[in-house]
Amino acid sequence: MKALTIIWIALPLFIGFSIYLLPRIARYLALGVAIFSLGYALIIFNLTSTFEFKLLDNFGVILVIDNLSGFFILTNALVTLAVLFYCWQSDKTAFFYTQIIILHGSVNATFICADFISLYVALEVISIAAFLLIAYPRSDRSIWVALRYLFVSNTAMLFYLVGAVLVYQSHHSFSFVGLRGSPPEAMALIFLGLLAKGGIFVSGLWLPLTHSESETPVSAMLSGVVVKAGVYPLVRCALMVSEVDPIVRIFGATTSLLGVGYAVFEKDSKRMLAFHTVSQLGFILAAPEVGGFYALTHGLVKSSLFLIAGILPSRNLKELKHMAIDTPIWIALVMASFSISGFPLLSGFGAKVLTMKNLLPWQVIAMNIAALGTAISFAKFIFLPHARTGESHVKAGFWSAITLLLGGLIIANGIYYEAYSVNNIIKPLITIFLGWLAYHLFFQKAIIQLSRTAEEFNHLIGVMSLVLILLFWLFFGLGNGLQTTANSYLSFQILFHHIL
């Protein structure tokens, strides 16, 4: 397994840089790498125990491979395959496929990292590859959006690196476990870097513009897998260091509400999807122990939604109400919308039920509100007009990609088949019904336009600074370090039970 893992990590980088020598078969080489990752992910699910090894002792690199890694790697493999199918008949150059494969490989690397320094290297490679993909059209707008992304990303990683050094000073190790007993400022700086990188809470407000303005396949990659490179370490840290679990859950619940709060009022389809990426990442963090399954489901559904949104006749949801969508495309759009809303028979149902069952009492109300907001948002797609127009001229690659992603949602539905009980089915159906009712009675007619001030470039770093202050307060200001934080959290839980 160790040799296979090293080959699997090195292969995307080797193939990525070799594509220039063989540009005519660039697509096939990229496809081969993604299929290899798919096979590797399936091997992980057959492991009977967690596989861990060190390459450079305490200085790094520490790798941990288990089912959690498997879910994230499987997501990356399927989304990358779908994007390659989508681009198969396009005029994308070898440069595009090079960046896709390097991005794929570096994202994979983050999903098995268990030390801060190798994670830092992988995240920086991701930043460069994502920057080049966002700027691929070479338009003034795309270059500006790419530079904006790179600036925010690199600033966040600077904070992260300082935090990683402080952890090493405390334990002479970069291991994630070193968070336990590290100074609060180290944890705050590392968390700030990961929250910003993963598009979490207000430090992730760079995400809506970046994801909505990128080319369709790049948006699918960014929302489907790239942001999870920042989310996975938070989930892994919460599982390895129990003291930070409450902090991760707090950001999970607040991020879910923040994202869905913007999404329900958004009138631009791609921006609505981007805000829902923020919200759904919150669901992953809200219950870290089952976050892998939710990440898989979200990756498949969000990639399919971005690919579909890319061929709709307009981005404006008001205009789409007066344009009949070709029925096959509408059916695909509805299936994906049903899944993310938690409708039975698709994996979104099982993922939501499993997440809700693993929430702490104080999270339940917030996450149910977020689920209701999701149903309201995606009613905008479900109730769009449709007809068998025959006017859509999508390429064959589109349907191959959508079939793979939606087929994955149906198959993954079996991962948590225990979810299918009467009680579990009734609750999400009621939530969806209430969401649709609220949409028709209020949100469909609402003309509220939320301010985009916080998303402006000038304010992104300022917002990041506010999050850093909040993190200091959580890790340090709430008392004398994590112990007090944990005690406060325990007291809060006891108080909540008494109130109930």
UniProtKB/TrEMBL annotation:
Major localization class: membrane
InterPro entries the record matches: CPA3_Na-H_Antiporter_D, ND/Mrp_TM
Organism superkingdom: Bacteria
Keyword Cell membrane: yes
TM segment ranges: 6-22, 29-48, 68-87, 94-111, 117-137, 149-168, 188-209, 221-241, 247-265, 272-294, 329-350, 362-384, 396-417, 429-448, 460-479
Domain NADH:quinone oxidoreductase/Mrp antiporter transmembrane: 115-376
UniProt keyword terms in alphabetical order: Cell membrane, Membrane, Transmembrane, Transmembrane helix
Residue stretches in coiled coil: none
Compartments, record wording: Cell membrane; Membrane
Membrane topology listed for this record: Multi-pass membrane protein
GO CC annotation terms, alphabetical: plasma membrane
Entry keyword Mitochondrion: no
Pfam families reported in the protein's UniProt record: Proton_antipo_M
Family label: Belongs to the CPA3 antiporters (TC 2.A.63) subunit D family.
Function in brief: NDH-1 shuttles electrons from NAD(P)H, via FMN and iron-sulfur (Fe-S) centers, to quinones in the respiratory chain. The immediate electron acceptor for the enzyme in this species is believed to be plastoquinone. Couples the redox reaction to proton translocation (for every two electrons transferred, four hydrogen ions are translocated across the cytoplasmic membrane), and thus conserves the redox energy in a proton gradient.
Protein name per the record: NADH dehydrogenase subunit 4-like protein
Organism this protein belongs to: Crocosphaera subtropica (strain ATCC 51142 / BH68)
